[in-house]
Amino acid sequence: MTGGSTGTGTGTNPSANTSVLPAGWNGDCGLHTQWAGDDRCILPPPPDKGFQVHVGPSDYTNPEATYIMQPGDELTTDFSSVSSNTDMRYFYYRQYRMRPTAHHMILTTAASTSTSIGSLGRRIATANKSGDFPVNGIIAPENVGVGSPISPSASIITSLHAINAGTSPQIREIWVNFWYRDAKDVTEPATAWFKIGSSSFAIAPGQDTVLGPYTCSVNSAGRMLWLYGHRHANNVSFLVNRIRGGQTDLIYAGYHWNEPITLQYDSITQNTMADTTQSIEGGWTGILDLQAGDTVQWSCHVINNQSTTLTFTNQTYLGEMCIVDSEAVGTDCAGL
């Protein structure tokens, strides 16, 4: 079942609320280099409005070796930085910009463990393509109290996965803007979800299989803010359901691994209606409420087009993953 109110297209209704961007702010940094993706560059927020995390070279004419990617290179690297806020602040709106080599980035604070998918700490941002959350900086009425804390001079680890699938050298570079929220306005903390599913599969060359379905159990009432399905190049589809009693609602259907959709669930965003029979991407539209006892279920259809066995690894073509990445308020989902 698709469930929920649905429709076509994706967007927001600007009259429903106002953007958090300050009047007169222009995000275009006007970068002009020999490298692909100059148009992705974005200016940082004014210092009193937020801060930027930047990973990239300091000199575009003679970039540091760690940022240069030769054709066929694929790297996952952790980069350290420190937030510029000098007191406790809160954020919600984030802007993500990535040069074409980037596959995904994960930003965490207080990282304590490193794995094949990066440092594990409190996730404060994640993306696998350029975009904004919420779209255009317009916060839905029900989310005006949502925020996440960032401590003074917080240590931030950016795990950047990049691949150069082209025929000439490129650089890897990303920009992430965090926009502050007034502490007095924050009444609902956002909780990051990162549900791996399984890391122990092995998919033989030519094998057509489904990873999952995996499940986690919602532990209290809340609502989901956004979701995307993280997968790699041999993925055919990524489906996510909310199960409540005997009812199954399809909340996410993705069919394009290289440009995976992120769905935003709120009262002002209209998502495309998913159609699994025709492989049309989309999902739930409107506020996506969660209740204690609900189950979130997801699965990945994978066809191994490689000559080697696929395992859980960050290699785009030679590995696979089936990970739910999301944020919610009021609740988490236990398991996996």
Question: Describe it for me?
Answer:
It contains no helices and 24 strands. The model is unreliable at 1-16 and 111-119 (pLDDT under 50). Strands 1, 4, 7, 8, 11, 12, 14, 17, 19 and 23 form a 10-stranded mixed sheet that branches. The two termini are 24 Å apart. The protein is mainly β. The protein folds into 2 domains: 17-186, Jelly Rolls (Sandwich), CATH 2.60.120; 191-334, Jelly Rolls.
In the predicted model, the low-confidence regions spanning at least 5 consecutive residues are 1-16, 111-119
Q: How many helical stretches?
A: 0
Strand tally: 24
Can you tell me the number of structural domains?
A: 2
- Helix percent reads under 10%
Quick take:
With 336 residues, the protein is an all-beta fold. Helices cover 0% and strands 46% of the residues. The strands form five sheets. Strands 1, 4, 7, 8, 11, 12, 14, 17, 19 and 23 form a ten-stranded mixed sheet that branches. The chain has a six-stranded antiparallel sheet with strand order 18-16-15-20-13-24, with no helix packed on it. Strands 3-9-5-6 form a four-stranded antiparallel sheet, with no helix packed on it.
